[in-house]
Amino acid sequence: MSAETIHEPRYTEEIVPFLAGDGRALHLVHLRGVEKADKGPVVLVHGAGVRGNIFRAPVRQTVVDALIEDGYDVWLENWRASMDVEPGEWTLDQAAVLDHPPAIRTVREKTGADKIKAVIHCQGSTSFTMAAVAGLLPEVDLIISNAVSLHPVVPATAKVKLHYAVPLVAQLTPFLDPQWAYGGPTRTARMLTRVVQATHHECENLVCRWTSFTYGTGFPVLWRHENLNAQTHDWLQHEFGPVPFSFFKQMDQCVRAGHLVPVEGFRALPEDLGVREPQTDARFVFFAGEENRCFLAESQRRSFEHLEHFHPGRHALHLLPGYGHLDVFMGKRASQDVFPLILSELDRSALH
Predict the structure, then answer these.
(1) pLDDT > 90 in the chain, percent
(2) What are the percentages of helix, strand and coil residues in the chain, rounded to 5?
(3) Computed from CA positions of residues 41, 100, 345, 296, in that sequence, does the dihedral angle turn out positive or negative?
(4) How much is the pLDDT for 121?
(5) In which order are the strands placed within the sheet that holds 11-19?
(6) Residue of 351 and 130 predicted with greater confidence
(7) 31 and 78 in contact (C-beta within 8 Å)?
(8) Residue 170 pLDDT exceeds 60
(9) CATH assignment at residue 303
(10) So which cofactors does this thing need (predicted)?
(11) Taking the CB of residue 8, how many other CB atoms lie within 10 A of it?
């Protein structure tokens, strides 16, 4: 991991609050470039236990920089899984029905745009995709999904961990938090940190090791170390927060079923949304790191084939050799290997 020159961002930042369907206070971060954004709004949706800031790692060019420089109006959505909102238990269903639709409506109201594009990652991707295929996001015409969407597939060892370890640990604590690396508030938290120290030796960054313990099985799970510069590996210590077991229990059901499974009983989410024809005209572009140890690339391949079955030739799949999970966005070479693909898909859609 080497150091590199980081440039100051060329945009301003505005917090735009909105209310979820159950009244929970959430917000968007509007990033406005110095040039006119004539290609319309793009909403970026983060994964579990992080925040919108995860798309702004200390690299030479972030995906936010690339989008703004290409003429897009960028919005980061902080939904209920964000470190930057009031913590609590949540499910993918809640995000799909209560968070993403009002977030998209807020962007439409603020911009006046008829159509919105989205770049979605991990559990932001699963929940956003749930909303889209259930017909809850008619304003979104292009969805670029990374890592996992409708069909979660995990390594065999991670499946065992979900099936057996999650129920046991959930009896001791309602959530896991990589920030416990700095001193857990409870005996259980401190005990789990000792487990992480004893079982993960892949680097000196204990938060990095904690994320691998939290999100699957691997050394590490969420990125390949060789893809990160030194600044990013240090920076990520402050970018991971609590994740409730309500989510892990739902993901266990989804992995068992082979597709997303609603658990809350919302009428807006059909029980078979992972197999029925999607109720959306949006074009999907699936990205997957071939070395992803959190969700295997097969996850995105299955979702691509599922959607292509109903609308052949509409969607796209990009498999990224040498990439894992989050390094697709924060890798030191992502601006050369990944972002041009994202921009080309966005620009292709903008021309139609």
Answers:
(1) 93
(2) 40, 15, 45
(3) positive
(4) 98
(5) 11-19, 25-33, 73-78, 41-45, 116-121, 140-146, 283-289, 316-320
(6) 130
(7) no
(8) yes
(9) 3.40.50.1820
(10) FAD
(11) 5
- Sheet strands (E) in the chain: 11-19, 25-33, 41-45, 73-78, 116-121, 140-146, 175-176, 243-244, 283-289, 316-320
**245 inside domain:** no
User: What are the backbone dihedrals phi and psi of residue 262, each rounded to the nearest 5 degrees, phi first?
Assistant: -65, 145
* N-term to C-term CA, the chain: 41
Instruction: Indicate the pairing of strand 175-176 with strand 243-244.
Output: antiparallel
Q: How far is CA 253 from CA 89, 92, 153, 257, 259, in A?
A: 17, 12, 12, 6, 9
**Residue the block writes with tokens 């060789």:** 226
The answer to whether residue 141 is domain-embedded is: yes
pLDDT at 352 over 70: no
- Residue 265 lies inside a defined structural domain of this protein: yes
| pLDDT score recorded for residue 6 | 72
Chain-centroid distance, C-alpha 211:
14
Return the pLDDT at 3: 63
- What's the pLDDT score for residue 274? 87
pLDDT at 338 over 70: yes
Query: What's the token pair of residue 170?
Result: 């959930």
Q: What is the mean predicted confidence (pLDDT) over 26-47? A: 95
Residue 341 has a CB neighbour count (10 Å cut-off) of 15
Q: How far is residue 206's CA from residue 35's CA, in Å, rounded to a whole number?
A: 40
Is residue 332 within 8 Å of residue 229, measured between CB atoms? yes
Q: In 96-131, which positions are buried (b, 16+ CB within 10 angstroms) versus exposed (e)?
A: bbbbbbbbbebbbebeeeeebbbbbbbbbbbbbbbb
Q: What's the CA gap between 151 and 317, in Å, rounded?
A: 14
202-216 pLDDT per residue, tens: 999 999 999 999 999
Task: Please report whether residue 213 resides in a domain.
Answer: no
- Contact present, 120 and 284 (Cβ < 8 Å): no
Average pLDDT, the chain: 96
Helix or strand (DSSP H, E) at 111: helix 100-111
| Tally of domains within the chain | 1
Q: Which domain holds residue 147?
A: 11-155+258-350
Q: State the pLDDT at residue 188.
A: 97
- Tens of pLDDT, residues 260-290: 999 999 999 999 988 999 999 999 999 999 9
